[in-house]
Amino acid sequence: MSSTPHDPFYSSPFGPFYRRHTPYMVQPEYRIYEMNKRLQSRTEDSDNLWWDAFATEFFEDDATLTLSFCLEDGPKRYTIGRTLIPRYFSTVFEGGVTDLYYILKHSKESYHNSSITVDCDQCAMVTQHGKPMFTKVCTEGRLILEFTFDDLMRIKTWHFTIRQYRELVPRSILAMHAQDPQVLDQLSKNITRMGLTNFTLNYLRLCVILEPMQELMSRHKTYNLSPRDCLKTCLFQKWQRMVAPPAEPTRQPTTKRRKRKNSTSSTSNSSAGNNANSTGSKKKTAAANLSLPTQGLGAIPNCSLNPGRDGDLCHSTAVTPSGQFKEKH
Question: According to the UniProt record, where is the region Disordered (predicted)?
Fold first, then answer.
């Protein structure tokens, strides 16, 4: 009786790392294995719709793919967005590649609130070339992946740093052309540059121009405008964003607390010191509300942070028996 993946004692041929315990919350490396299987199912008739479906299955809508390597003229770094990722994978096969898969060894995983990061320092991108000659190319480097921590577990960022590559030619082919110096000289030449075909390199150079034009192409597709009108609209909106003042953050009103004696009297007296005409009416209103003695003078102390007429911080207000205020310094 053969065991199935639903059997609790099932041992996966890919090791315990690839065993699925939940419907889709699997190990991140298993997603790379599924991507390899999807690439192997590609046919010669696979069109742009097939590649768009491939990118939708394994990459987020705002995903980015970055390649870093060093050529003869210096280091290179290319970053492309989600809309250009399908075309990148298709150019790999257009350059004569018949098979493509990735091998991750000794990768490290780190879990965050909304994402999972996989850091593999020993990653190999293996491509099988059928033309111009039968060659196996192993491109080695460091691959850093960021997956979304949800049911789909799609790739949000892809960063592959290429360190070295090897081109392997079978001995049988060398034995067949041992007597032909021209063929041997052709076999001794590299068919890739840092493991990438010329089709892929030319596309990455083109992406340097295409990536900033994504906004123009999206506007043309949405509003059916001419290229010149799309450019004018985008430039005008960009100019508006540059000229517009930055929005100020909303500030919550802060309440200041001051410890004062007889706060009711202090408030009326501090307002009385600002305007001479309005102080008289305010003092009369305050005097009507106060219970004043019928004989003598009552002094109401008032200490304010605002200096009085003579520059003193503390002054007092005297109340006459007739109900009028008189300030004393």
Answer: 245-289, 310-329
Residue with tokens 């010669």: 44
What's the pTM value of the predicted model, to 2 decimals?
0.61
DSSP one-letter string for 229-295: HHHHHHHHHHHHHHHSPPPPPP-PPPPP----SSHHHHHHHHHHTT-HHHHHHHHHHHHHHS---SS
Q: Is residue 311 a contact partner of residue 305, using CB atoms and an 8 Å limit? A: no
Give the chain's radius of gyration (CA, Å): 39
Closest CA to 65 of 38, 35, 20, 107: 35
Q: What is the CATH number of domain 28-209?
A: 3.10.450.50
| Cα 77 to Cα 188: distance, rounded to the nearest angstrom | 28
How does pLDDT run across 129-142, given as a tens digit for each residue? 988 788 999 999 99
